[in-house]
User: Which sequence fits this backbone?
């Protein structure tokens, strides 16, 4: 029998699928695999999507989301869960109830709720349910700037000072930690994120790469962090490793020629060695 530390940890992603393969469940599975964990999935919605945008969203019936969750948790030893797109309030309520039931060791929530156009993907009642029922269970919440603004009811930050001005409001959401991602500050030389814990906050710096191929970055980063948490890293180290991984995946994204729009990051970039 293998020693327990030699067993590949299992990470579950609960999210929507991306037919173009660059974001959603597909990106999650690639990122979890590339960072050395075993990926399983529960699909909440099917999207018709490519590098040019999303043309249709079909939510999965609640009974089938529940049966997927029961199938995974009743058999697999899931250590960490990453939650991405939850299409509506009913799905959020169901997923919150099942997470409470199965109580995985780690929970990372990427609150997919604002489209790149700025349009809200979730109705206001669904955002309220997300804040009330799911976010307080999270070990880490990973909003980008528009999502962070929507969660706390403030204007989208235009600079790092504005990001700092959201710290207390984000803490009040109840997650153990929040990683506020600064990628939308496109005029900045770096792509810096703010890691907010209950007693501290820290700016994590990373080089910004000038590429249009950033489709799926949020999905990829949150999945990588969940993977590193499942492997036994403390939160700060898992976030650091996840940020290192996504930076590399972005830096090599131009080596992939996928689609005519915003292409995906390179999950299995050249020379990539599983960090585990």
Assistant:
């Amino acid at each position: 029998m293998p020693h327990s530390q030699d067993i590949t940890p299992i990470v579950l992603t609960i999210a929507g699928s991306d037919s173009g393969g660059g974001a959603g469940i597909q990106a999650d599975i690639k990122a979890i695999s590339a960072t050395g964990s075993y990926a399983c999935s529960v699909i909440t919605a099917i999207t018709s999507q490519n590098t040019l945008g999303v043309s249709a969203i079909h939510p999965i019936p609640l009974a089938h989301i529940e049966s997927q969750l029961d199938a995974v948790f009743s058999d697999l030893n899931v250590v960490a869960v990453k939650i991405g797109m939850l299409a509506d309030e009913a799905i959020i309520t169901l997923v919150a109830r099942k997470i409470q039931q199965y109580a995985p060791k780690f929970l990372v929530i990427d609150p997919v709720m604002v489209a790149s156009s700025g349009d809200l993907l979730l109705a206001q009642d669904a955002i309220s349910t997300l804040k009330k029922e799911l976010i307080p269970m999270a070990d880490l919440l990973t909003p980008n700037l528009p999502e962070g603004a929507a969660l706390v009811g403030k204007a989208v930050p235009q600079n790092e000072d504005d990001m700092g001005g959201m710290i207390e409001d984000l803490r009040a959401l109840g997650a153990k930690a929040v990683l506020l991602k600064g990628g939308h500050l496109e005029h900045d030389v770096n792509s810096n994120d703010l890691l907010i814990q209950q007693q501290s906050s820290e700016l994590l710096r990373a080089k910004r790469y000038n590429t249009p191929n950033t489709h799926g970055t949020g999905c990829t980063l949150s999945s990588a962090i969940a993977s590193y948490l499942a492997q036994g890293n403390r939160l700060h180290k898992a976030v650091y490793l996840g940020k290192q991984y996504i930076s590399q995946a972005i830096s090599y994204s131009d080596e992939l020629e996928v689609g005519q729009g915003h292409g995906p990051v390179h999950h299995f970039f050249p020379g990539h060695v599983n960090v585990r």
About this structure: The longest strand covers residues 38-50.
